[in-house]
Specification:
The chain is built from 4 helices and no strands. With 74 residues, it is an all-alpha fold. The termini are close together. The model has no long low-confidence stretch (mean pLDDT 95).
Length: 74
């Protein structure tokens, strides 16, 4: 079964006007040229964000987005 990458899913959540925290994360990830765009791996993305994403104020936002991703992929 084909699963889209987390980044591709996240891009569907972008909102330029009055974004919530997850939508703001998507907006910022779009501008992040080194984001692991092909990954579907929680640990890989989580580690990347912890080390590189100064635009993400809380990993809870990533956790929320990841859960949305898993729900969409079911």
């Amino acid at each position: 079964m084909y699963r889209t990458s987390f980044y591709h899913f996240l891009m569907t959540l972008r909102q330029p006007d009055s974004p919530n925290e997850v939508e703001q994360f998507a907006n910022n990830a779009f501008l992040d040229t080194t984001f692991p765009k092909q990954s579907q791996n929680f640990d890989e993305i989580s580690n990347y964000l912890e080390e590189n994403a100064n635009y993400l104020p809380s990993m809870t936002i990533f956790d929320d987005a990841w859960q949305m991703y898993l729900n969409k992929m079911e």
